[in-house]
Inverse folding.
């Protein structure tokens, strides 16, 4: 594995800028689903948890990895499902016709 | 890392960004979330294929249980409980990030100093996010008191823990594979998370949740540095940015700095010099019939909902009132203060759940100029966010906080349980304003009666 600081920092910094641009365009009406959507997105740590679990050598690695996979799965599934529920409510009626 | 793995992660990153772009409009937002979910599925699939040595059975069992629990909880949670739900899922993400870094640090493959730094950062921030979010969850769920929990020398204790934490970090930089020291580090970080959130009051939770959300995002990004995984870096950066923006918005809406919220133990210190003004002024009482008459014959009405509305579970009744008044061609709008709920945008969700169309919901800056040509403003379960003292009484603790210009409308009706002051214990001169009438009682009962009275007119 090659550890490439500079490239990764470039990516990080650019992603932060993209993030600021994207988020500042979200209307305040949608701030709760925004938060819960980003909450689900940081469940991407599941990818890290899976690779840790796969490359572990000791028993401790195994249990740490397994617990991480469990927590991350909860985060991902719960996060996306609850966001979908919230956004479903905003989809119902575009305008108040009786 | 294999090439197809990289390619898959790139697709995931694109899906995440495209998904967030769709959050610009309420109608398209749902498809954006599905897009992000699809991106997540691709990332997981790619990872699983690239790691044939995964302990399959154990992984499947854990994923099945975690997925089922997450699904059921997310399907059943009430919208009023959304803040604690977000806090709970945030804790899970933070905990997972912390564990992944712990596991990687103990591995032999952490050889570069930068990697140790990334690992230690994630262990600490992830653990703080985990325990801090859990405390926020307990507080919002009211398993713990929502009031600030304080004790003497609290700041010194918190600071002391930080100093020990720093010492352990130095030790781990020297010998990264020391499992005992790493365990101590995680425990200390967990403790710090608990102690930082304990003294923060329930009304400040929108800030805390946003901040911890940013923390978990940064922890995920740092894990990306550790594992050389770009999708973790990108996703983590996006979440970090979003959490940071929301934290700033929330603390600005409360007119307090983040440091003040985190370390100020609000509610303890604020006892204003304006106590007693309510008794000096005259409070005008209104009857249901008066208010119904007033509303039914108005041209333009603004409703100001506060968290008290959700506490009284009166969202449906508000929507009914909106419908009745709309039938009479009254222009009804809702003015939503940024901190009207327990998390950013919470009040919008609660009203959307009750089928209030989102184009009736207006944020503070866009509706504030409209109060002056509004016939009636109906304040339901909101207090501090309507307090004119924030604009014109420099000695008020609220002074400088952005508030809704309720006092500019021609007539003001306040639905309230009694004359008790708001969460912060600050009197509201709005109530003794000559244009204001108070309709006392449970918000839900009052609204029910109002709906009936308007109907009969």
């Amino acid at each position: 594995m090659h550890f490439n600081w500079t490239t990764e920092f470039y990516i990080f910094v650019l992603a932060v800028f993209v993030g600021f641009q994207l988020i500042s365009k979200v209307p305040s009406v949608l701030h709760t689903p925004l938060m819960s959507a980003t909450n689900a997105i940081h469940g991407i740590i599941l990818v890290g948890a899976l690779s840790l679990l796969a490359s572990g050598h000791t028993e401790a690695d195994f249990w740490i990895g397994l617990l991480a996979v469990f927590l991350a799965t909860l985060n991902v599934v719960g996060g996306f499902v609850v966001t979908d529920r919230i956004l479903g409510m905003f989809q119902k009626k575009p305008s108040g016709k009786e | 890392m294999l090439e197809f793995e990289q390619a898959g992660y790139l697709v995931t990153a694109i899906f995440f960004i495209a998904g967030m772009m769709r959050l610009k409009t309420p109608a398209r937002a749902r498809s954006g979330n599905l897009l992000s979910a699809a991106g997540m599925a691709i990332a997981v699939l790619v990872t699983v294929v690239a790691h044939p040595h995964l302990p399959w059975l154990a992984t499947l069992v854990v994923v099945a249980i975690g997925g089922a629990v997450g699904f059921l909880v997310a399907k059943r949670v009430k919208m009023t409980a959304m803040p604690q739900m977000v806090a709970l899922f945030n804790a899970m993400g933070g905990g997972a990030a912390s564990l992944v870094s712990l596991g990687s640090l103990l591995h032999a493959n952490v050889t570069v100093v930068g990697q140790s730094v990334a690992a230690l950062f994630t262990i600490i921030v992830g653990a703080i996010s985990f325990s801090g979010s859990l405390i926020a969850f307990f507080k919002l769920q009211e398993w713990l008191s929502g009031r600030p929990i304080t004790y003497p020398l609290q700041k010194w204790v918190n600071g002391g823990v930080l100093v020990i934490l720093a010492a352990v970090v130095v030790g781990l930089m020297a010998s990264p594979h020391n499992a005992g020291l790493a365990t101590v580090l995680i425990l200390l970080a967990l403790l710090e998370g608990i102690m930082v959130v304990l003294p923060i009051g329930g009304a400040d939770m929108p800030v805390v949740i946003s901040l911890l959300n940013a923390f978990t995002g940064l922890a995920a990004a740092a894990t990306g540095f550790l594992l050389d995984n770009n999708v973790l870096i990108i996703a983590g950066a996006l979440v970090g940015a979003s959490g940071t923006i929301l934290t700033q918005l929330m603390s600005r809406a409360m007119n307090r700095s983040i440091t003040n919220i985190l370390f100020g133990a609000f509610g303890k210190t604020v006892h204003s010099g304006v106590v007693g003004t309510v008794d000096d002024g005259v409070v005008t009482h209104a009857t249901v019939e008066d208010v119904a008459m007033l509303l039914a014959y108005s041209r333009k009405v603004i409703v100001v909902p506060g968290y008290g509305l959700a506490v009284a579970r009166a969202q449906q009744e508000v929507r009914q009132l909106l419908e009745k008044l709309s039938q009479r061609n009254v222009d009804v709008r809702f003015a939503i203060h940024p901190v009207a709920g327990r998390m950013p945008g919470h009040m919008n969700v609660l009203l959307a759940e009750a089928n209030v169309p989102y184009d009736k919901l207006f944020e503070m800056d866009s509706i504030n100029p409209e109060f002056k040509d509004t016939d009636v403003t109906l304040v339901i379960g909101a207090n501090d966010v309507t307090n004119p003292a924030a604009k014109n009484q420099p000695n008020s603790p609220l002074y400088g906080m952005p508030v809704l210009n309720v006092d500019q409308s021609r007539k003001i009706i306040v639905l309230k349980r009694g004359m008790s002051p708001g969460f912060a214990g600050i009197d509201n001169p709005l109530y003794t304003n000559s244009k204001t009438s108070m309709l006392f009682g449970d918000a839900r009962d009052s609204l029910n009666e109002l709906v009936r009275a308007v109907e009969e007119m």
Summary: Residues 59-91 of chain A form the longest helix (33 residues).
